[in-house]
Amino acid sequence: MDPIIGTIILFAGNFEPQGWAFCNGEILEISQNQALFTILGTTYGGDGMKTFALPNLVAPQSNGETVPAHYIIAVQGIYPSRG
């Protein structure tokens, strides 16, 4: 079953499954991710003309380092409908 685009889940792996991306604030091209852009817009960053950003759910550590919380977002799948 395909996930709904924009779904965020906690993932125990250290790799991105096909159709998913880490929620690490990555900047993406709108032209290559139009469906996800229509859902997220520039809520998490980007210029809104060519780029937008994924949410950044990386956990800061007390020593200043960061460790991924391993949240992933569906970048491919079913576009959600209203209604």
Automatic annotation (TrEMBL):
InterPro entries assigned to the protein according to its UniProt record, in alphabetical order: Phage_tail_collar_dom, Phage_tail_collar_dom_sf
Domain of life: Bacteria
Residues covered by the Phage tail collar domain: 6-57
The name this protein goes by in its record: Tail fiber protein
Species of the source: Mucilaginibacter ginkgonis
